[in-house]
Amino acid sequence: MDNEIKLGVIGDPIDHSMSPYIHAQFAKAAGLKINYKPFHVVESDLNEFIESFFAEGGYGLNVTLPHKLNCVRSADILSGEVELLGAANTLSKNNNNKIIASSTDGLGFIKDCSDKNIEISNKRVLILGAGGASQSIIPSIARMNPAKLMVDNRSPDKIEQLLEKFSSFRLEPFQQSDEPIDLLINATSAALSGSFDWNIHSQLNKQTIFYDLSYGKASEKFFSWASQFSRNGFDGTGMLIAQAAFSFQSWFDTFPDISNINLNNVND
Ligand code: ATR
Hints:
31% of the residues lie in helices and 19% in strands. The model has no long low-confidence stretch (mean pLDDT 95). It contains eight helices and twelve strands. The longest helix is centred in the C-terminal third of the chain and has 16 residues, at 237-252. A six-stranded mixed β-sheet has the order 2-1-3-5-6-4. Helix 1 crosses helix 8 (237-252), helix 4 packs across helix 5 and helix 4 crosses helix 8.
């Protein structure tokens, strides 16, 4: 229908995306008529797709893997966070028909922590992984003033790159010590390729909070490992919904009600 607001999410693959269901619920509650579609876009078509989408009246796009880095090339204006990360998950168009790229993953993570009473300020935080998912939350966590913000990764060379990229934040490489970790964030895709284990057992305890940026089946192995230490575990569903809410806010200037989002009828 012509009066529907054209939105979508682009990725490759895209079948698994829950964004259409989440945004449909936001829009219904806000009384907006949207037409939010998943688009399977391959790398070679990326920039052309984005340009035509907006040229043909598209209002906003979410961007998921593997396009978070390369979609930035299609944008005319980059938010400060996108300048810093080199990656975006939200595209919109301003009144002058310029495409604006922003990133809401870090905001989504912090909002979900706040909703779940997960404290970051003055806590010792360790992020496992150095890829895009890890990077997307580092600046937002650093701004919350943790006592320590550490990163560990299977490949040590990527840790060095990360420390350089985020040199304006107090990010440290993880080193074994006797200090307990308050918040352990899994930003690796390790559990997808087998079992999960990480050599940090002596620094984990009942008080440690375990947070996996992935959700559903993809987080099961991480939590089965974590259950030997603590029952404080959260998967990335809350972050997924919150980052979508910030995207919605960037398009419609209103933060949707995220308290009753139902993803039960959606496959992982
Ligand atoms: P994403 O965008 O989801 O972060 P990515 O950029 O491919 O994806 O990063 C994947 C992360 O998971 C990396 O930190 C990767 O470690 P390497 O840098 O050593 O590749 C980590 N990872 C993937 N499989 C892993 C495994 N089996 N064990 C430990 N870490 C793993």
